[in-house]
Each structure stands twice: as C-alpha cells, then as structure tokens.
Amino acid sequence: xxxxxxxxxxxxxxxxxxxxxxxxxxxxxxxxxxxxxxxxxxxxxxxxxxxxxxxxxxxxxxxxxxxxxxxxxxxxxxxxxxxxxxxxxxxxxxxxxxxxxxxxxxxxxxxxxxxxxxxxxxxxxxxxxxxxxxxxxxxxxxxxxxxxxxxxxxxxxxxxxxxxxxxxxxxxxxxxxxxxxxxxxxxxxxxxxxxxxxxxxxxxxxxxxxxxxxxxxxxxxxxxxxxxxxxxxxxxxxx
Length: 239
Ligand code: BV8
Known about the structure:
Elements: E1 14-18, H1 37-40, H2 43-46, H3 49-54, H4 56-71, H5 77-88, E2 92-96, H6 102-105, E3 111-113, E4 116-122, E5 129-131, E6 149-152, H7 161-172, E7 176-180, H8 192-198, E8 202-207, E9 219-222, H9 225-232
Parallel strand pairs: 1-2, 1-7, 2-3, 7-8, 8-9
Antiparallel strand pairs: 4-5, 4-6
Helix pairs in contact: 5-9, 7-8
C-alpha cells in the first residue's frame, strides 16, 4: 500500500467523516453488503418511526440487542490514531454517521454524531435523555410513563438542525477532509464531503471499494481503516 504520510501541522483544521466501515474492524457489522445489518433485519420493522409507533417494545429490544453485540467490540488502531491527533493538533474533529460510540471510547472528544447514538434513549414527551453504558439494563419507559425511543435518526427522520450546523461548520471549515468507510448513499450525510471539496480542502477517501462519490477525492486509499490511518499518520500513535 503506497501511502504518503500526512504531517498534521501542514493543515489548519482536520475533519474525519466516518461511516460504518470505520467500525468494521472492531467487529461492528456495516449496513450494506452480504453481512450487513439490513441484510439481516428489515429496517422498516425495527428501525423507523412507524415501527416504533407500531411496536415500541420490539424496536427497543432490537436496539438493546445491538448494544449487547457492541459490548464486545473495541476501538481499533484507526480510532486510536484519530483520537491521538486530537491531543496533538488544535483543530481535529470527527463527524460520524455511526451510532456505536467507538470514537468516544477511543478517546475522541470532538465528535459530531449525525445520526444519534445507540447509547442514548430519549423521552418523546419530555425530551429527557437517558444515557446507557455497556451492560446497563435498558429502561423501556420514561419516568413520565411513555415508551422511550432510541435517540437515533432513522430513515424518514430529519437530522437535528443544530447537529447539521455544527457538522457544516467543521467540514466547511477544514483544509483536510478524510472520509472513511462510508458507502455515500444516505443523505443528507452523503453530501458533506462535497462541502469540503467546494471550499478547497484536500480530500482523502479510505474505503475498501469505490463509491458514487469517489470522484470527489484527491486521493483514495483502497484498504481497511485500521491499517491505512496508522500509515497516513505514523507519528500519531508512536507514544
Ligand atoms: C432525511 C441510523 C429529511 C442508525 C441511518 C424516502 C423517505 C424518507 C427519506 C428518504 C426517502 N428517499 C430518500 C430519503 C432520504 C434518506 C436516504 O438517504 N435514503 C437513501 C437510502 C436513498 N435519508 C433519510 O431518511 C435521512 N433523513 O432525509 O430527512 C426527509 C424526511 C422525510 C422525507 C424525505 C426527507 C435520515 C438518514 C439516516 C438514516 N439512519 N442510520 C441505525 O438505524 O442503525 S443510515 C445508516 O446508513 C448509517 O447511519 C449511515 O448513515 C448510512 C450509510 O451507511 P454507511 O455508514 O455508509 O455504511 P455502509 O454499510 O452503507 O457502507 C460501509 C462502507 O464501508 C462501504 O463502502 C464499505 O466498502 C466500507 N468498508 C467496509 N469495511 C471497511 C470499509 N472501509 C474502510 N475500512 C474497512 N475495514
């Protein structure tokens, strides 16, 4: 793999834009492809507002199962590189489509979750947020009595405008964008890398295969995130 190392200080602001492929080497299934989540489950039955209204218990059980599956998953070297860069460079951010919390578990603090988190439930009535950790018993009802809802942006849900603004600021203001492990098929998330390109950022893609948006990138590395990121930032996890 011929990878030109990056010197972080050559850039003013670095933005990582990640999808499910960023977590694949941690053992978290991606969404599409043979072993993908949507090949196993029908999202219309377990991961959308209609399903939640129809059978909240089934939806909550599905998400509790996904949390259990995540409990054995650990961040990999790619997550460690991204987190370590945040300690070495003033302007490093992560904009992720992932809901698995692995960036945060690796130590990244500036993480914008476009699609929410498996580790949060919210009361649709009061807006109260319930934070869960690995192994926590999942509450199903709020103190006010209504069914809790996974704090996740499902198909057909609008993204939080505040989250969109923060992601736009980070990606529109970076001069280095690194997009990792996303099939670039889900909108509006898929549109973010174009923002970086339009304002002149150097854009790099890390993916096992090309996507419909690969034309956007100045460099594409066809390899796993856990190997490419340490090669791109060899000094990031020397310590
Ligand atoms: C919206 C939540 C306004 C978590 C997700 C009809 C009705 C309603 C909406 C629509 C509609 N038609 C179109 C839309 C818009 C829709 C959309 O984009 N649909 C697509 C399918 C066409 N978008 C929405 O609904 C969004 N909201 O538009 O609101 C609105 C409202 C009403 C009506 C119209 C508009 C909300 C979208 C958010 C959905 N939530 N996840 C959960 O449920 O689990 S989507 C889910 O898939 C992820 O969050 C992620 O964002 C998305 C894409 O997945 P990826 O992360 O890219 O992962 P994927 O498996 O696809 O690919 C993995 C990649 O990694 C591959 O390329 C692979 O090669 C690579 N890879 C694998 N291993 C590695 C690797 N790379 C590197 N290293 C490795 N080791």
